[in-house]
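tool=predict chain=A
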Amino acid sequence: MSASSSGQAASATAVKPKADVVLYHAPGCHLCERARAILGELRGELEFELSEVDISGDAELEKRYRELLPVVEIDGVQAFVYYVPEDAFRRKLAAQT
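tool=predict ok
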């Protein structure tokens, strides 16, 4: 096998990078807790990095997200507000990775 053909094989089997999912939330937000639980369940079947951002005390984040919580972004794109439908999350994740 030549060096060029082995390089092609390696790139053909390259693993897609995991999507970055961000959950913007605040304490006492019951919809945020529901979104966190749904995302936790989905992490068991799908590969994505999940980070959480508490908007409390950050004036800019409060202004941007307070009335929309929870807010979920996938790879920097706002994907969901208020609720995270599981099937819609799967489709969006597949489309963005």
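The radius of gyration is 17 Å. The chain is about 45% helix and 25% strand.
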